[in-house]
Amino acid sequence: MVKAVVVGAAVVACAAVGVAVVLERRRRKRDADLLGSAEAERRRRAAAVIEEVESSLATPTALLRGIADAMVAEMERGLRGDIHAQLKMLISYVDSLPTGDEHGLFYALDLGGTNFRVLRVQLGGKEKRVVKQQYEEVSIPPHLMVGTSMELFDFIAAALAKFVGTEGEDFQLPEGRQRELGFTFSFPANQTSISSGTLIKWTKGFSINGTVGEDVVSELSRAMERQGLDMKVTALVNDTVGTLAGGRYMDNDVVAAVILGTGTNAAYVEHANAIPKWTGLLPKSGNMVINTEWGSFKSNKLPLSEYDKAMDFESLNPGEQIYEKMISGMYLGEIVRRILLKLAHEASLFGDVVPPKLELPFILRTPDMAAMHHDSSHDLKTLGAKLKDIVGVADTSLEVRYITRHICDLVAERAARLAAAGVYSILKKIGRDKVPSGGGKMPRTVVALDGGLYEHYKKFSSCVEATLTDLLGEEASSSVVAKLANDGSGIGAALLAASHSQYQYGASD
């Protein structure tokens, strides 16, 4: 009897264990179903955000043509002197470009963004060309970008004086002559001569009191005097004008220059009689280099997304430099960050908690974006490492990495295609966008491009070139060349300093 009771108890115990196992399996299945449902919902939300991003950043060719037409119309308004024109179309006072005859020792200072470059070049005329050149690059401390004018220019002049102090025997300055400098100033300025110009406004993250409306050559000259540096600024040029000069020195078919770096701008050679606002005697060459200041272009045709609008609203210059904010290196990484942040909030892209570092504006720089975009490894290891370093997420799934790369691709492609539309607009303005109707041969047309974004972000630059070919068509594009002009603005400024030397020691007439 006792045995039967024990056996019965064992059966009951086994049944209880069996029920527990079944219940546990059901619980696990339910949890798995819930987890699967949650994961499915997360993926659905992520897909919805990505689809919205793809749509809002789309740049079909027809849209690009419309943007180019709108930009040409603004260029014409600017050349007429319309005060409401978005493109200022600034007269550079450069009516002739380097010929190759330039000779002597000249310096250049290239102030274009978060870094500036000091350069010296020994020119040897047509036979020897650039005999020797040296340069140094200096980073501008962030606090000086929002400080005072004197602080900024004193810092620049000190670096320039230090650089002059390292001048070696390979660089020869004739006895009794003052060193001369070409000053590349990559911000909107109203030039009143080849060696003077007043600042219109700061861009590219600079916001300095006391400089707007002032002659920047005078500001630099006073700073050099405070450093005890005997040097004269003989040419003030925008970076695009410098790049155009440097490009023409290397290739006589260069007609335009475009900067795609921290910021963006373009310059080109215009017929002087096509500049209604020009009031002086027409230059002997019949041409004038125009600094478009195209970064300020805006149009209802531009595909502005919610991310662009929010970034612009929170910027130092809301409502300004819209085109620049869509295509330049200062902003592309930030647009990617804002999209990733939305994915983190709405689709838990990086887990249940939004990474705090992802909330920080401009934490994701465009060079990091390019590194992630260029990662072609099977497991996107570089991209994962970047997310860990920048966003602080130690472990990301392959899916998250692929989504991140796709966002980089979308933002870069839109920027590159919009940049190509800008180049196309300049070619349209000067009649280099199509083969002549009379059946003549289209002249070789070279566009010099400079800037870190174009030089180092290969997927970006490849897309610019492919889109330009698409816009021009096969026949016209065969005569158009996009050419990297590395440090063209620095060399160009030195060349223009030579051709405008106070000793007439530069180019021959």
Automatic annotation (TrEMBL):
Pathway: Carbohydrate metabolism; hexose metabolism; Carbohydrate degradation; glycolysis; D-glyceraldehyde 3-phosphate and glycerone phosphate from D-glucose: step 1/4. The keyword Cell inner membrane does not apply. Residues 50-249 form the Hexokinase N-terminal domain. Keywords: ATP-binding, Glycolysis, Kinase, Nucleotide-binding, Transferase. One of its GO terms (cellular component) is cytosol. GO terms for biological process: carbohydrate phosphorylation; glycolytic process; hexose metabolic process; intracellular glucose homeostasis; response to glucose. Its EC number is 2.7.1.-. Residues 256-498 form the Hexokinase C-terminal domain. GO terms for molecular function: ATP binding; D-glucose binding; fructokinase activity; glucokinase activity. Belongs to the hexokinase family. This is Phosphotransferase.
